[in-house]
Specification:
The chain is mainly alpha-helical and 410 residues long. The chain is 64% helix and 0% strand. The two termini are 34 Å apart.
Length: 410
């Protein structure tokens, strides 16, 4: 038995354009979840759903009630997949951490400051705003803290933990014999199930949250607490090694989409905590690996088109802007509801505003920072200048290798 090593095809595959495009659909799932909520996470927790037709509004909310959970789980798995895919043995930890911090913090700090100016300073205590500033608020089991300031940024707490641990994780994963990678992938899924069993039976179930059918503490432990989400990230890294080693089971896209549909239906009927990730983790893994395999085979298709890659590149900003555009925007408009045509126009307007905000973050903050500081400048030898062909582009700086939430996640 031998450990997994990079395959010859691996050397030329720093780009996975279809996965970049797929990221936008994951961010869109989160948007659909947020825009139909009955209760905002921002006090006074008024409804966001703009539909006066209660039956239609309720039906739409029900249809996408698990979409946000799927999108977040997708980003966590994708983060592990892309980091393992682009990882190079012997890479300096300091260099890796610098890139990752530059990837998430500039966008986060901009949205943190904007949120504080617009609304958060008036409703957030010192613990909330300070812990969110440094992305540690998700470690606090207090609903007023773990979604403090810019609520969507709670996922960056998990991403930051993933980044700090990844240099150790990838060293351990590379020691797994190739024929045992699937076993360890299964262990990660079982660990996710174990987290939700602990959530159900060991975490206090009272008082019940006003926003979910479980307690605030259960929601925190099962969904928000960063260590609870680590297994998705590790699974993503294992899946990358499975694909790179040629051990992925080939699936056609239509088969993968059927698996995704079945997983979503399952998430709608299982007990609430199992919809966070357990019910949909196999579909998430299937679509990531299938799309990556299609990229390897040169079948990029629609997801790898220039418009979709552009949307994927701005998906991190699109995700982070939702707290201000949707949650604060509805506060500005009041809690009015509207007839269906007007409500649909409002949803479209929020979508375009969020898209514009995501583009602005990418074009004015994220990309300039990464271009300027993420890659160390090569020092030419005395008396000689390095030829352009000698410059090695880091795969992590390629659009497809930006993880989701911080590239969304990431």
């Amino acid at each position: 038995m031998t450990a997994v090593r990079a395959t010859p095809a691996r050397l030329g595959l720093s780009k996975l354009p279809s996965l970049t495009g797929l990221r936008f659909f994951a961010a869109l799932l989160v948007f659909c979840f947020h825009i139909t909520l009955s209760n905002s996470p921002i006090p006074p927790n008024d409804p966001i759903n703009p539909f006066a037709d209660a039956q239609l509004g309720g039906t739409l909310e029900w249809l996408v009630s698990k979409a946000g959970y799927v999108g977040v789980s997708f980003f966590f798995v994708l983060s592990g997949f892309l980091l393992a895919w682009a990882s190079k043995p012997g890479e300096a930890k300091r260099q890796f951490w610098r890139r990752r911090l530059l990837k998430i913090f500039p966008n986060h700090l901009v949205m943190w400051a904007l949120s504080m100016v617009l609304f958060a300073a008036a409703i957030t205590g010192p613990v909330g705003w300070a812990s969110n500033l440094f992305l540690v608020n998700s470690f606090v089991p207090d609903g007023a803290v773990y979604v403090a300031v810019n609520p969507p940024s709670w996922t960056l707490n998990s991403e930051l933990l993933f980044y700090m641990l990844f240099p150790l994780i990838i060293v351990l994963l590379r020691k797994i014999p190739g024929n045992r990678l699937w076993l360890w992938a299964g262990i990660m899924v079982v660990a996710m199930l174990a987290v939700q069993l602990v959530t159900t039976y060991l975490i206090p179930a009272t008082p019940v949250s006003a926003l979910t059918p479980i307690s605030v503490t259960q929601f925190w432990f099962g969904y928000i607490f960063p260590p609870s989400r680590l297994f998705e990230f590790v699974l993503g890294s294992i899946l990358a090694l499975i694909v790179l080693s040629g051990r992925w089971v080939p699936l056609k896209m239509w088969q993968t989409l059927l698996i995704c549909l079945a997983g979503y239906v399952l998430a709608m009927i299982v007990p609430f905590v199992y919809s966070f990730n357990v019910a949909t983790i196999i579909p998430v893994a299937a679509i990531i690996c299938t799309v990556a395999s299609d990229d390897i085979a040169g079948r990029t298709g629609f997801l790898g088109s220039k418009p979709m890659v552009w949307l994927g590149n701005i998906s991190f900003g699109f995700y982070l802007c939702q707290g201000v555009v949707i949650f604060y925007g509805r506060i500005l408009l009041g809690d009015q509801v509207y007839e269906t045509p007007i409500a649909l126009l409002m949803v479209a307007g929020f979508f375009l505003a969020t898209l514009l905000g995501g583009w602005a973050l990418y074009a004015l903050v994220e990309k300039p920072v990464m271009d300027r500081w993420a890659r160390p400048r090569r020092q030419p030898s005395p008396g000689a200048s390095a030829p352009a062909s000698a410059l090695v582009v880091d795969p992590l700086l390629q659009p497809a290798a930006h993880d989701a939430l911080s590239g969304a996640s990431r």
